């Protein structure tokens, strides 16, 4: 073959118009990553409604029990099982306790347990996933086998055994939920780490000689934050729901303390006689679950890199 | 195009390098197998070959992103195999890399200033005001301006991002830069811009490039010498003009025949050599010469013996039985 006719001269590769610095300007306003996320999150009306509901519920959970004059544990046998009497806005239960106060008190306990459980999730799951994904190879292989074994044990059994040993309380329930729940978090983080590890900007940092610490803090963790937040938003309602379930089978917070699950269980006992006793705690539980899911969905859409560019 | 001139100083020597990957079930991908070449100081060596031929793998092995399975890589006379601590840091400053995908090669959570200054931070080359000044200087070197420093990568175009990647590599004042398909993800108009920037930087800073690509005309434009790879082997290496004028290896011939010629009259007469079949799997490469299954000139000996890497003309290396007298004699014997 004869390609001597195929002459390439430097002139052929000169740009038609010379570049000027002015042409390189970026016209748009400076947008940070979180600014961009907020811009997209804002457009999601459902997610905003979720945030609003959560704020209202959180505020009421904090100040709600103090709005009227009743304590969550004060009994009054004169007015048991009254639907509305005086300023008992949600009525009273079988011991004459104020359901408004107990509902918000219980919502607070439920949220606290869920937040603590998610905290344990993060505490165990994130480092576990990080190490597994970052080091890879044999380390990863062993750590994943351990996870698979743990995943094979029904978590209800683990929780029941733990609660028998620890005696149900806020910390004990949160710990039991965290110990069984971190696996999802670890898997999410590991998956992200594996993905990020082969990204070119991570390779670039390696060729520059970045230390492991720098790699993790500057390049890996900021980029797994999105999926971790999404996982948190979905694991909080799961924890609340599971706590309610535990209370329902009699493993919940001990009276006179209450959580939403305990209240629902109490209300369920008298469902046919006094349905309002089940209604209010169940409504609040549903609203909490709904709003966390709405916010989680919104965040996922706002953070999802696939929608970017 | 530059003439073949004896360039004395070897900056990089790659000797019989192998890189194999385990892909499970005891299977082995022989991504790079027995590749040897040298890079001289101040030159640009182009590496071409189709996707999956191991050209990126060899680049990443040279810069120690992968550890070579076998063989030796010497940078400035010293083996890179067991670099540690201080020496490794020094090596990281002297050799840098430009990556293929401008959308994946910049951390989306860091500002452009921090991305460019990463090398400065890691090696503690500049702090505070000096760091700021150096960042601005680097931005200007690649044709961007200082306002860009506190913006984020997603606000830039592909070409701009690629230049930010170049600035990051330049921050540590490297001598040798591996460019792993730096232009294949860019529009044609921007490709010229980036390549011209790379040429300008080479002139000004005396850089040495290993330029990995699959665009033959672009490789010819930027490279002093060109190596052709096929299925993990280097099949031919020569001065770029020599390679394009007198390709020896049948694979190089076929590859070059696929390049369109920007002249309608000659283009009409261009005959393409169409290779039969697909590239075999690197898990189970053909015996003997790896190209024999698709080679239009394959002989009996090609299946039996691996061709040796020989300099058949001055500075023109090829790995093919057609150009080895001993092999041709043996082939006669077989008949």
Question: Could you walk me through the main structural features you see in this protein, from its secondary elements to its overall organization?
Answer:
The complex is a heterodimer of chains A (309) and B (335). Chain A has 10 helices and no strands. Chain A is an all-alpha fold and 309 residues long. Chain A has a single domain, classed as MetI-like fold. Chain B is an alpha/beta fold. Chain B has a single domain, classed as Rossmann fold (3-Layer(aba) Sandwich), CATH 3.40.50.300. Chain B contains 13 helices and 12 strands. In chain B, the strands form 2 sheets. In chain B, strands 6-7-8-3-9-10-12-11 form an 8-stranded mixed β-sheet, with helices on both faces. In chain B, strand 7, helix 7 and strand 8 form a beta-alpha-beta unit. Chain B is globular and about 75 Å long. In chain B, 45% of the residues are buried. Chains A and B meet through helix 7 and helix 8 of A and helix 2, strand 6, helix 4, helix 6 and helix 7 of B. Chain B: This is Peptide/nickel transport system ATP-binding protein/oligopeptide transport system ATP-binding protein. Chain B: One of its GO terms (molecular function) is ATP hydrolysis activity. Chain B: InterPro entries: AAA+_ATPase, ABC_transp_ATP-bind, ABC_transporter-like_ATP-bd, ABC_transporter-like_CS, Oligopep_ABC_C, P-loop_NTPase. Chain B: Belongs to the ABC transporter superfamily. Chain B: Keywords: ATP-binding, Nucleotide-binding, Transport. Chain A: Keywords: Cell membrane, Membrane, Peptide transport, Protein transport, Transmembrane, Transmembrane helix, Transport.
């Amino acid at each position: 073959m004869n390609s001597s006719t195929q002459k390439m001269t430097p002139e052929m590769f000169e740009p038609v118009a010379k570049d000027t610095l002015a042409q390189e300007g970026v016209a748009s306003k400076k947008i940070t990553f979180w600014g961009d996320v907020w811009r997209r999150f804002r457009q999601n009306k459902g997610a905003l409604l979720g945030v609003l509901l959560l704020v209202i519920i959180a505020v009421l959970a904090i100040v709600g029990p103090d709005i009227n004059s009743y304590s969550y544990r004060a009994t009054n046998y004169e007015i048991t099982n009254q639907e509305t009497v005086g300023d008992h806005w949600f009525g009273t239960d079988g011991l004459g306790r104020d359901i408004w106060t107990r509902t918000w008190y219980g919502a607070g306990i439920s949220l606290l347990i869920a937040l603590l459980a998610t905290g344990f999730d993060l505490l165990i799951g994130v480092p576990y996933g990080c190490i597994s994904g970052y080091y890879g190879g044999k380390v990863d292989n062993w750590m994943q086998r351990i996870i698979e074994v743990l995943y094979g044990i029904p978590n209800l059994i683990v929780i029941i055994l733990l609660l028998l040993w620890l005696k149900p309380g806020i910390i004990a329930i949160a710990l039991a939920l965290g110990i069984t729940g971190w696996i999802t978090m670890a898997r999410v983080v590991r998956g992200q780490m594996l993905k990020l590890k082969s990204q070119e900007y991570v390779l670039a940092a390696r060729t520059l000689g970045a230390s492991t610490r720098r790699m993790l803090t500057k390049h890996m963790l900021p980029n797994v934050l999105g999926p971790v937040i999404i996982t948190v938003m979905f694991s909080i309602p799961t924890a609340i729901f599971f706590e309610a379930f535990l209370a329902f089978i009699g493993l919940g917070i001990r009276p006179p303390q209450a959580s939403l699950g305990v209240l629902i269980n109490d209300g369920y006992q008298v469902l046919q006689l006094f349905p309002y006793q089940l209604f209010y705690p169940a409504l609040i539980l549903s609203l909490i679950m709904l709003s966390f899911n709405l916010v989680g969905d919104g965040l996922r859409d706002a953070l999802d890199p696939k929608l970017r560019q | 195009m530059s003439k073949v001139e004896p360039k004395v100083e070897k900056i990089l020597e790659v000797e019989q390098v192998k890189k194999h990957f385990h892909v499970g079930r005891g299977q082995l991908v022989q991504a790079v197998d027995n590749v040897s070449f040298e890079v001289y100081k101040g030159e640009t060596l182009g590496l071409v070959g189709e996707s999956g031929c191991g050209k990126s793998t060899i680049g990443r092995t040279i810069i120690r992103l992968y550890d070579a399975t076998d063989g030796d890589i010497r940078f400035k006379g010293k083996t890179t195999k067991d670099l540690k601590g201080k020496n490794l840091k020094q090596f990281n400053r002297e050799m840098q890399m430009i990556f293929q995908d401008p959308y994946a090669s910049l951390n989306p959570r860091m500002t452009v200033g921090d991305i460019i200054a990463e090398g400065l931070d890691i090696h503690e080359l500049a702090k505070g005001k000096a760091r700021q000044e150096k960042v601005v200087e680097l931005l200007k070197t690649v044709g961007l301006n200082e306002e860009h420093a506190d913006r984020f990568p997603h606000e830039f175009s592909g070409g701009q991002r690629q230049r930010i990647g170049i600035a990051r590599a330049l921050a540590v004042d490297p001598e040798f830069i591996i460019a792993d398909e730096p232009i294949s993800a860019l529009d044609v108009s921007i490709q010229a811009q980036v390549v011209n920037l790379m040429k300008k930087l080479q002139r000004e800073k005396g850089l040495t490039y290993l330029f990995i690509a699959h665009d033959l005309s672009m490789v010819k434009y930027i490279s002093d010498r060109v190596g052709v790879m096929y299925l993990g082997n280097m099949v031919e290496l020569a001065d770029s003009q020599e390679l394009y004028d007198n390709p020896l290896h049948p694979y190089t011939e076929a590859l070059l025949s696929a390049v369109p010629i920007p002249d309608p009259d000659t283009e009409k007469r261009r005959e393409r050599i169409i290779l039969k079949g697909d590239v075999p799997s690197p898990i189970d490469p053909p015996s003997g010469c790896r190209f024999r299954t698709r080679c239009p000139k394959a002989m009996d000996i090609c299946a039996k013996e691996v061709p040796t890497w020989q300099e058949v003309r001055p500075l023109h290396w090829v790995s093919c039985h057609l150009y080895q007298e001993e092999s041709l004699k043996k082939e006669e014997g077989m008949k």
